[in-house]
Design brief:
Elements: E1 8-11, H1 17-30, E2 34-37, H2 43-52, H3 59-71, E3 77-79, E4 82-85, H4 94-106, E5 113-115, E6 118-120, H5 127-137, H6 142-170, E7 176-181, H7 184-187, H8 193-202, E8 205-209, H9 215-221, H10 232-244, E9 250-256, H11 260-272, E10 278-283, H12 290-306
Parallel strand pairs: 1-2, 1-3, 3-5, 4-6, 7-8, 7-9, 9-10
Helix pairs in contact: 1-6, 2-3, 5-6, 9-10
């Protein structure tokens, strides 16, 4: 009898992909399931995603829809998890809770199939349970799925610890150090966030990512600035700033227009973190980078002037 063909899973290179890619790839690899990833973000991806989104959607969501469209017809399923919470006061932005339904509705006439799982600790659905459900949907027995998840989780933890150690070393480096407070899907996106880090390096500064931090420690320390901030990834960034603001020369609050949580959290940071030069930089769908580079250049000049280097 001919063996049943395993499906090809599409992974949009946007939103939670940058946070979870090691876990996702390792999990599917352990199951022997082939994955295909959409290409890097470019102007075409953004324009196609924007045409699928409502005007009020944030830039990151528009980019995400562009990546979903790029995968349509190139895989059996597009994987979009539904992530709601990691515990009490550890919620995700509602976009992440709605992403599967949103994509299925937007691309309902494409014939593309989608694959999802639910992560909501407040309703007793932790990550292990979510991946068990995911693996069983693909037809694998529970024992095989649990082993694949355990192996994938170990790979993710090992990789993440390596990234955090590398960032921690940057705080000890000589030179102008700029802490970038941004979500991974903003700062790592080659079309929007990486233009900022590339310019900082070109200008002789050392960009350091606030999102690469000991997450549990950052969650605890975030209470020193706010006990009411409820968004998981925002609390990690806030806690990271508390842990490191006295080790850097400046902070850039980098967000995608018009992100609701970031607009509130960045205002909180700006009001409560003192003695450190700060730039609130909001990225939109503009076609050029001249305005961004001008603001970055001015910010670096201010820091150097403050330090007596100009």
């Amino acid at each position: 009898m001919e063996a049943k063909k395993k499906p090809v899973i599409g992974l949009p290179r946007a939103m939670l992909y940058y946070r979870c890619r090691t876990l996702w790839h390792a999990f599917f690899d352990e199951l022997g399931v082939q994955t295909v990833v959409s290409g890097p973000t470019d102007r075409v991806v953004l324009e196609r995603g924007s045409s699928r989104a409502i005007d009020e959607a944030c830039l990151s969501l528009k980019i995400f829809l562009g990546h979903v469209e790029a995968l349509c017809g190139k895989c059996d399923y597009i994987f979009i998890p539904r992530v709601s919470s990691f515990g009490r006061h550890r919620n995700m932005c509602t976009r992440f809770e709605a992403l599967p339904d949103l994509a299925m509705n937007v691309f309902r006439d494409s014939g593309q199939r989608f694959l999802t799982c639910d992560l909501d600790v407040l309703h007793k659905k932790d990550e292990a349970a979510a991946f068990l459900d995911l693996g069983q949907k693909l037809g694998f027995p529970p024992r095989v799925v649990r082993k694949a998840y355990k192996t994938a989780k170990k790979a993710e933890q090992t990789q993440y610890k390596r990234l955090v150690r590398a960032q921690e070393q940057l705080y000890k480096a000589d030179g102008l150090k700029i802490l970038i407070a941004a979500h991974s899907y903003v700062v790592e996106d080659p079309y929007i966030g990486k233009t900022v880090t590339a310019y900082l390096k070109k200008a002789g500064a050392i960009p350091i990512r606030a999102d690469l931090v000991d997450r549990e420690e950052a969650i605890k320390r975030s209470g020193e600035l706010s006990y009411t901030c409820k968004w998981e990834m925002s609390r990690e960034i806030v806690g990271s700033i508390v842990m490191h603001y006295d080790k850097v020369d400046g902070i850039i609050l980098l967000s995608a227009f018009p992100c609701g949580p970031d607009s509130m959290v960045n205002e909180l940071i700006a009001r409560r973190v003192k003695r450190v030069p700060m730039l609130n930089l909001v990225l939109d769908s503009q076609s050029g980078t001249a305005g961004i580079e001008t603001r970055l250049e001015s910010f670096i000049d201010i820091i150097r002037f403050k330090g007596g280097q100009l």
